[in-house]
């Protein structure tokens, strides 16, 4: 599961018993050697789906982590790329890997941007926000985009109840709820709070027009439906 350059079990345990911000600060130097980093296949499929909708001028990676989203934004955006995250450790890694980018430390629920970007992307971050926090996140992205701007992120299809992964994700979420009941500060990371219908409703309430496209390069389920879709939220006006 982890490469030899990845974190030890002890390091993961310390991270899991920290806050989200402190945990990612600790994990940052080894994050790209863990399965938590968004795989290149997902990044490339996202870039392929967005390419016909561009080109774009300025791009924003929301909850950028170590900067993996640069792989998507760089070939699509003609101007400067910006990443925003609240972990100083993750931003330090992103800055070292991509010195041409602009890396901003901020809480994405209150981003310091106003109509500055044409394209915003995000990868693997929604599970770090409780459902009642999503409206603030989406409102911040909406404010950061220029009129007509696009917010895009991949979302996996729900697992059937017969799938071992369904039970693995359910078990993980339950263990996180127990951990957050018994231990402070909380570490918010849930896999089953980000269903497409709920996300679509929250995006629409924030002022976006929402569509999806299948990321067929990532495969299909047994019933023929795509394993992953790209959510395309367009700021109207």
Describe this structure in words.
With 237 residues, the protein is α/β, with parallel strands linked by helices. The protein has helices at residues 9-16, 20-27, 40-50, 70-73, 88-97, 134-144, 164-182, 196-205, and strands at residues 59-62, 81-85, 102-105, 117-122, 145-156, 208-214, 228-235. The N and C termini lie far apart (45 Å). The model has no long low-confidence stretch (mean pLDDT 89). This is Methyltransferase. One of its GO terms (biological process) is methylation.
Low-confidence spans: none
**Sheet bearing the most strands, described?**
7 strands, mixed
CATH top level of the domain at 37-158 and 195-235 is Alpha Beta
CATH architecture of the domain at 37-158 and 195-235: 3-Layer(aba) Sandwich
What is the number of helices? 8
Q: Say how many strands there are.
A: 7
Instruction: Indicate the mean pLDDT.
Output: 89
- Name the CATH homologous superfamily of the domain at 37-158 and 195-235: Vaccinia Virus protein VP39
Radius of gyration from the CA trace? 17 Å
Sheet/helix structural class = alpha/beta
| Spatial strand sequence of the major β-sheet | 3-2-1-4-5-7-6
- Distance between termini? 45 Å
Beta-strand content: 15-25%
Oligomer: single chain
């Amino acid at each position: 599961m982890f490469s030899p350059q990845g974190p030890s079990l002890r390091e993961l345990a310390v991270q899991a018993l920290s806050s989200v911000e402190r945990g990612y600060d600790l994990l940052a130097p080894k994050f790209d050697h863990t399965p938590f980093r968004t795989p290149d296949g997902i990044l490339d499929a996202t870039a392929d789906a967005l390419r016909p909708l561009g080109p774009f001028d300025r791009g924003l990676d929301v909850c950028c982590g170590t900067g993996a989203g640069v792989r998507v934004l760089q070939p699509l955006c003609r101007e400067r790329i910006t990443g925003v995250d609240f972990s100083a450790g993750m931003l330090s890694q992103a800055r070292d890997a991509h010195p041409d980018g602009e890396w901003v430390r901020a809480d994405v629920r209150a981003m310091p941007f106003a109509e500055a970007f044409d394209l915003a992307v995000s990868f693997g971050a929604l599970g770090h926000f409780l459902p009642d926090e999503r409206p603030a996140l989406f409102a911040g992205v909406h404010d950061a985009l220029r009129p007509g701007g696009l917010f895009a992120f991949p979302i996996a299809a729900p697992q059937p109840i017969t799938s071992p992964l369904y039970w693995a994700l359910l078990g993980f979420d339950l263990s996180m709820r127990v951990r957050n009941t018994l231990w402070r500060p909380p570490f918010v990371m849930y896999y089953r709070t980000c269903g497409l219908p709920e996300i679509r409703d929250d995006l629409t309430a924030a002022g976006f027009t929402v569509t999806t496209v299948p990321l067929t390069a990532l495969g299909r389920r047994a019933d023929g439906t795509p394993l992953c879709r790209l959510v395309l939220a367009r700021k109207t006006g």
